[in-house]
Request: fold
Amino acid sequence: MERIDAPTSEESKDGYDESYYRTVTSICNNLQNTIDELLAKQRQQFPLDTNDLKPRREPINHKQYQVIKDIFQLTPVFQSTRYLAHMNSRLSPESLMGGMIGMTVNENLVDSVSSPVSSKCEEYCIIEAIKLVGYNPSTAHGNLTTGGTTGMMSSIHVATNIQTFPLSVSLAIKNETIEVDNELHSRFISHWKHNYFVTNAWGENKQFSELSFHELINLPINQKNCIKEDLIRLSSQIIAHNESKNVVRITNKILSPYLLNYIGEFAFRCKCKKAFPDSLTVMNNSWKFIVSESAHYSIVKALKMRSSGSESLILVENDTNDAIDLNKVKKIIINSESWIMGCIGIFGTTENSNFDDIEAIILLRNELEENHGISFFTIVDGAYGISFVAALRDKQGKLVSQSQLENYFRQIAVSHGFSSSDSNKIQNECLFFTDRILKKANALKDVDAITYDPHKATYIPYPSSVVLYKDKRSLMHIASNADYLWTQKEAKLPTGMFSLEGSRPGASAISLYFSLVSKPLNQEGLGKDVCSSIIAANLLYRKLKEIDGMVVNSPQSNILTYRWQNNEHLTELMLKKMHPVNGCKRFSVVETTMNGKKYFRTCIMHPHAINSYVVEGEEKKHVFDAFCDYLKKLKEEYYSGIDSSKQVDEISPITHFFNEGEQNESA
Reply:
């Protein structure tokens, strides 16, 4: 093994540290050995070939050395229970192992040919996620993405194309001057016009060509998903059996001049206004999606990708349960002059983990369909909260009852060493979670699309995100063709055909697979970790409430928000001191703003925080006791005239990377 060289004399002038050099050298050598072994094993498929694939070994240079040193000095120690800030924690060891192996072989999920192993891992992970949310594995589908933002973009993209598809078909039927290649095309149009019937939102069975504009845009989502499939089936009845292979091609060719995806939004709106006189108001206004005021910024980003931009988002205030106010949603939908394409529910906000009432959203849609003939696409942003459903499913994957869930919390508390009486107390105190979550989780199966981020509370390395669709036919509205990779003629469609991204790392699929086969998405696996983190958050909640002058909001899961009462300046100073980039080695927290006031925000990701002890001075304390004592100490210093925030040298971790010759040892 060739030794990695120390920096040259020129490089050493700027902050070379022998102890860090030895550490960096050891880590790099061990990693390189592991990579070499993995690559050598793969090369054994061609044992007689010249070994020209052996990687060239270069000494680590000063810039590389400096970055690794900065990682040790500046990157927050996420695996420590002292880190009480963002949704970072110790990762699943199995996922790290799978991810490293996956990165070494570097498969690409764009196609199964370039990902013979990781594409199978992706398929397994998608099925497990489908079962977690309650979808039917035989009719649902999805794919891995690089993040919740991409998943939300995909969901909105699918929703928009599904919602507009009936209008496209109607435009094709109405256009009497359509230029067709042959008589067969004309027969298709005539057959659709006179022989295709659908069920509108009121439950009435009507001839498709007779539907009004209002009925077309408000057809139930299931009915819209049926249309293309039905048209192909209907069309196959009018041509000879040996010509049936052309049905899909002919159908696509007829519809393409009217599809939003093909002609763009401006041309689509123009065609609709010409064909449907009563569409002017809807087509002159932006098409809207409704979401609560707690919406993640990714939803805004996703809508900015559309031509109507963030203007197409309607933010609705929360009710007294910190969930979207559905009475206001109902009024908006009924009275709106805009097309309400969809409603996005939040299943665990990343700010304070609030859960919208998903069941009530589905019931509202049913009510509006029945009484007003209005329907909409439903999306759940479950990027953070879907992981918690693992605590609600038994070994067989069934949702447990309320009493079973409460008993499960009691058992987890006992497993962490709590007495029977304390465990009963914990069970009662965690009712804030168990009382609200079951009905909401049970309603997930009725939602049209769901996003879920395993790289949050499933403890998987970035990037690992999933987007799921209740009806796999939804994906055909955004499918792409690439003859050198795949076509829509294939019996089993690869996920690369309908994913928003092109190339996707196979390492993410292997990483998630390694984790799920060791910790399944139920009470026997991941459920123990997320349940433990909720109990830990409740434990810290109790301790914070005991501090004089501290205002603490009741947690919805494992996120806490709190502040000093009537002293925003003290809150700001402490936030400044304990912010992760400001070099505080004791504890890390971050801030958020609610109702115009700044709050500490703490996410208890560590399932082992319940039994975690730290050393402060010469005293060993529970990590939460040490944290609360630290808060009280800073408060005492503040009122005695000592500004603790000035004891921190405020630096940015980026400094070392881009400023040669600057060595900030104070970090």
Notes: Residues 100 and 507 are 7 Å apart (CA to CA). The longest strand covers residues 340-346. DSSP finds 23 helices and 15 strands in the chain.
